Amino acid sequence: MEVKRPEIFDLFRIYRLLFITGIGIFAVLIYHFGMIEITDLSVNAVILLFAAACLGLFLRSLRRRLFFGKEISLHQSMSFEVVMQYLHFMSPLLPEKTFESEFLERETRIKSEKISLWLHSRVLGVYLICSLAGLLVSILYSSPVFSVFFAVSAAAALLTAVLRKHIGVLSYLNSVVFGVFVWGLEGIAVTSVFNHFVSPADSWAAYLILTAVIEFSPVPFAVGLAELPLLIFESPAVFWLCALFHFFRIVPVLALSAVYITRYKFKISDFFNPRIIEFLHRYPEEDVPDYEEVDGAPDVSIVIPAYNEEQRLPSFMKDVLNYIKANQSRLSIEVLIVDDGSSDNTVKVVQEFECKNPNVRLLRQVRNQGKGAAVRRGMLEANGRYGLYADADGATPISELDKFIPFIEKSDKIVIGSRNISAGDVQQEREGLRSVMGAAFYKMVNFLAVPGIKDTQCGFKMYRRDIIHKIFTRSLENGWAFDVELLYLAQLMGHSIVEVPVNWHEVEGSKISPVKDALKMLAAVFRIRSRQGGFLSDS
């Protein structure tokens, strides 16, 4: 009996109840304070509040970047910050610390010890900064009892950092100092608007209280609950200004999450399921059982998709057969040529090779279905321990297979050729419009779907047999975007992908239109994200 759906439903029901409660509190506050005409609130003031919210998001991302140094880029820091703030706003009851630990370990090569150091210092830092904020508010309003309470709270946070040796006091202090800087700089921008309506003391107190409550609110988006303490001011101006800034803090996170949530393979429903942390923790390299060896199975299956390739295929096939002959003592290789409904003499050309070479096999598609469909069929019917698919034009020499074998025999599940990684012994010839369009496309795909992959479209990729069935049976793209989908699925499942620089030269006769196909593939990226995203889709 399926038990996961009730888990999702129960947690979502809790969030819905909390959110409705927050909306109710907010409605009561509106009734209490009433509507107000803020005639002095100019367009510039609204822009400044929005800019302050965006600045806060950027600075919090920068703090993460400075802590981890060169191990992550500023763009990665921003994307990670957006995901974590999205989680905080959308699903505040999920254990953020555990989620972030598993998320960072999955998406980076940072050691778990340093991630743990970051998490401990950040959590304690939030408590310390909030205690300092409470202390400042108490001092502003001459409240000795609360001043003592928050001073003791701040001292306890510092003492905890000193006693926990694994936290690293210096790293902790650096994180706290930068955190104070973030709150201070954001606060200056916010209170410069507030000061037109209330005293500087009320401005800072309102900002600090609002920001602290947002950090700890169990209500989705902290709606209503963040504004509730503002009752102490009895000021409609304070209420509405804080509500506006609160709204502006949420907007950029939601806007950027539209890109980053699916980039990292999440669906919204994932954030309402407590099992998401368990699924982030899966590492298929350890979980996939050893596959059964087939008697007489070759070491490598080379899959070549072919559509109207009577001119270019023979030359490449001669190179492939020469390579097989030269390496027959160390590698057994089969070649599967998948004819994708060609209308020329491609089938006849392949049949001639098939008759003369027992390790060549022809597979025929009834009609033209696309390169993705041809590759999928070939890889699923391959018998080799490793499956390599290569373009029929021979743009990447078959001898580059030698570079892949050490990686895939060691532990890596997927090895892909890259034309965007330089190496001293590699020549990559690409010029003109194709080069420009290719570079732009790779950056866009990297940004939207497969972070960390520099070249998704090189037609020279190898997969271990034990994961071919898992990935290729889920692939649905038949066109040129199938590479992106396969890599997207591989990252979703947590498989390691290694990029290896390969020799590559452009061959005349390409069927790709740089502009037209780039637009089609861009549309396919969004289709892939929508269709394949979600860690819990099959759970």
Automatic annotation (TrEMBL):
Entry annotated with the keyword Membrane: yes
A matching Pfam family: Glycos_transf_2
Principal place of residence: endoplasmic reticulum
Catalytic activity reported: a di-trans,poly-cis-dolichyl phosphate + UDP-alpha-D-glucose = a di-trans,poly-cis-dolichyl beta-D-glucosyl phosphate + UDP
Membrane topology: Single-pass membrane protein
EC number: 2.4.1.117
Domain Glycosyltransferase 2-like: 301-472
Family indicated by similarity: Belongs to the glycosyltransferase 2 family.
Keyword list, A-Z: Endoplasmic reticulum, Glycosyltransferase, Membrane, Signal-anchor, Transferase, Transmembrane, Transmembrane helix
Pathway(s) the chain acts in: Protein modification; protein glycosylation
One Gene Ontology molecular-function label: dolichyl-phosphate beta-glucosyltransferase activity
GO biological process, one term: protein N-linked glycosylation
Organism from which the protein derives: Sedimentisphaera cyanobacteriorum
Gene: arnC_2
Protein name: dolichyl-phosphate beta-glucosyltransferase
Cell compartments where the protein resides: Endoplasmic reticulum membrane
